[in-house]
Design a protein that fits this description.
The complex is a heterodimer. By secondary structure, chain A is α+β, with helices and mostly antiparallel strands. Helix content of chain A is 20%, strand content 21%. In chain A, the strands form two sheets. In chain A, strands 1, 4, 5, 8, 9, 10, 12 and 13 form an eight-stranded mixed beta sheet that branches. Chain A has a five-stranded mixed beta sheet with strand order 3-2-11-6-7. Chain B starts with a helix and ends with a helix. The chains are: A alpha+beta, B mainly alpha. The structure holds protoporphyrin IX containing FE. Protoporphyrin IX containing FE binds next to helix 3, helix 4, helix 6 and helix 9 of chain B.
């Protein structure tokens, strides 16, 4: 099946889209008219009825955590393959067609193979799960993901006893991913997890948000979600999953090793060199919130890092 | 039309009527947009400035600070190229607007972004080079703004005032470095500003050396 997001939106989301266009026009008008802008227009939850409903089982949510609106989840993204601005991916990924899609599973496994996405997903039960999401840039969201546990996929591939890490690779196709024509990052994007992190029941291979197929800007058709790590660990548009014996490279660490580590666990006590990580701004909220150790998943994951110096292994 | 008549005609262009108030109003537009959009987004849950209005506003005002610095430094070269000497008196206005924008940029940072968390404000200033450099830029602009009045020029005397106002060349350098250091990876924009300032500086250097060469020994 083809994902054609624009059409998709037009049929189901007529109201929000028109509000969005209104807002654009209005902003332009504001440039000319200046004052009188604060008079209200399209509040954030206007058209909430037409918005897809957040579905799924909450995991590790705090009492005041509410799902971030669809508009923000799908309109404010870091996905440098489609541009470096936050609104770029939604704009420049519009024409991306994530089908057909093959995923290669190889490396230190008994059963390697190349699979059509549908066949790759078929053996697993798809789940809807609501997770907290924390970006390294100190903003956060609450996102209703849809996907399958990565552990399912790995178990099926049967990692050998030498396998210690998992390496993930994004599609490299500068024709379809215009951001890859620039040298902002070394392409293709690669990421990695320790095998025990990859096998953790919270680690998800996401295929959707809000009960729908993943919009292109969110990493269609397959992306990683590791809710206790900074968002950039969640590699998008995955084409390869490889089991290896050494710690794999990861793109942001390669681009700037002082600022981005391999582990990248959410940790309010270890600052990024250019900003504090103690607090975060939840998209849609004014007051900053305190950032929680492991993004609120401490009980589930702290044992993975017992005895490790998290300041050194940032 | 040959070159010399073009130049003569260009030189003859006089200050359009109402230029002063028009400039002031135009220069206020980005500030009004920023305040209104952030205000509306925060209070009324709109998305004029996208999903993260405070960050967007902070960046928007930082960008306009640099743009006004560019405009300020462009006045003299443009005046010399066109012969529009009436531009000279607007340089101060543009410089003061650059200062107003950096203050709004800083206020957005301190009040809305960091929300007056003194620990973060002091830690940022002490530990984060890009904040230190931005602050140095702001601090350098203060004496310039304070001494921008006719009275202050008279009190300082032309020579001293000129020497002090050479800080106007330091500010854009600090501002551009600050911008450069603040971006995660894509340095295209700071690079463009750096090129812009480089051209404006080069113009001045070239003119100075030409004049020095022309001066009788
Ligand atoms: C001459 C003075 C300054 C200039 C020209 C300037 C300019 C800029 C520019 C152009 C940006 C980036 C905008 C973008 O990404 O589109 C920026 C970002 C920023 N500036 Fe400034 N700035 C100045 C002073 C300051 C001061 C005094 C502070 C606070 C103490 C400050 C704090 C920030 C912060 C927090 C950011 C955002 C960084 C981020 O989100 O990663 N700036 N500034």
């Amino acid at each position: 099946m083809l994902i054609r997001r624009a059409d998709d939106l037009r049929s189901s989301d007529t109201t929000p889209e028109s509000l969005y266009l209104n807002r654009r026009d209005f902003l332009a008008a504001a440039g000319l008219l200046g004052a009188g802008l604060v008079a209200g227009f399209a509040p954030r939850d206007a058209g909430a009825m037409q918005e897809p409903q957040a579905v799924g089982k909450p995991f590790g949510l705090q009492p005041d955590d509410k799902p971030t609106p669809w508009k923000d989840v799908t309109g404010y993204n870091n996905f440098y393959e489609f541009g470096t601005g936050k609104e770029d991916p939604a704009e420049y990924a519009k024409g991306f067609v994530p089908r057909p899609w093959t995923v290669q599973v190889d490396g230190l496994v008994a059963k390697s193979g190349q699979y059509q996405l549908e066949d790759f997903l078929k053996p697993s039960a798809v789940e809807d799960r609501i997770y907290r999401h924390r970006c390294v840039e100190a903003w956060s969201m609450v996102i209703p993901w849809r996907g399958i546990p990565l552990a399912d996929v790995l178990k099926r591939a049967q990692p050998s006893s030498q396998a210690k890490f998992v390496e993930f690779t994004t599609l490299y196709d500068p024709k379809r991913m215009p951001g890859q024509r620039s040298g902002v990052l070394p392409w293709p994007y690669v990421e990695g997890l320790r095998l025990d992190e990859a096998m953790h029941p919270l680690t998800l291979l996401a295929t959707g948000v809000y009960g729908r197929d993943l919009p292109n800007q969110n990493g269609a058709p397959l992306r990683l979600v590791v809710p206790w790590k900074y968002g950039f660990k969640g590699i998008k548009s995955i084409v390869r999953i490889r089991l290896v014996d050494k710690q794999p490279r990861n793109t942001w660490n390669e681009a700037n090793p002082q600022e981005y580590g391999f582990y990248s666990n959410v940790n309010p006590e270890v600052d990024h060199p250019r900003w504090s990580q103690a607090k975060e701004r939840r998209i849609g909220e004014f007051l900053r919130r305190p950032t929680l150790m492991f993004n609120g998943y401490k009980d589930q994951v702290a044992s993975l890092y017992a005895g490790m110096d998290l300041r050194k292994n940032f | 039309m040959d070159g010399s008549t073009f130049r003569t005609r260009l030189r003859a262009v006089r200050e359009p009527r109402g230029f002063t108030p028009l400039l002031a109003v135009a220069a206020c537009v980005p500030a009004v947009v920023a305040v209104a959009a952030m205000g509306s987004d925060i209070l009324r849950d709109t998305r004029f400035f996208g999903s993260n209005p405070i960050k967007h506003g902070e960046h928007f005002l930082g960008d306009w600070t640099l743009r006004f610095l560019l405009l300020t430094l462009a006045v003299t070269p443009v005046r010399q190229l066109t012969g529009w000497n009436w531009l000279a008196k607007h340089r101060r206005t543009l410089g003061l607007f650059a200062f107003a924008y950096v203050m709004l940029h800083w206020l957005t940072y301190a009040l809305l972004d960091v929300q007056l968390d003194w620990g973060d404000l002091t830690k940022d200033l002490a530990k984060r080079p890009y904040i230190m450099i931005g602050m140095a830029g702001l601090v350098c602009m203060m004496p310039l703004a304070l001494t921008s009045t006719k009275g202050m020029i008279r009190r300082l005397g032309g020579a001293r005032w000129n020497r002090l106002h050479r800080l106007a060349y330091v500010v854009p350098v600090l501002g551009t470095i600050h911008f450069w250091m603040s971006v995660k990876k894509d340095v295209t924009e700071p690079l463009l500003y750096a090129l812009g300032f480089a051209v404006l500086f080069a113009w001045r250097l070239a003119r100075r050396s030409r004049r020095a060469a022309a001066a009788p020994a």
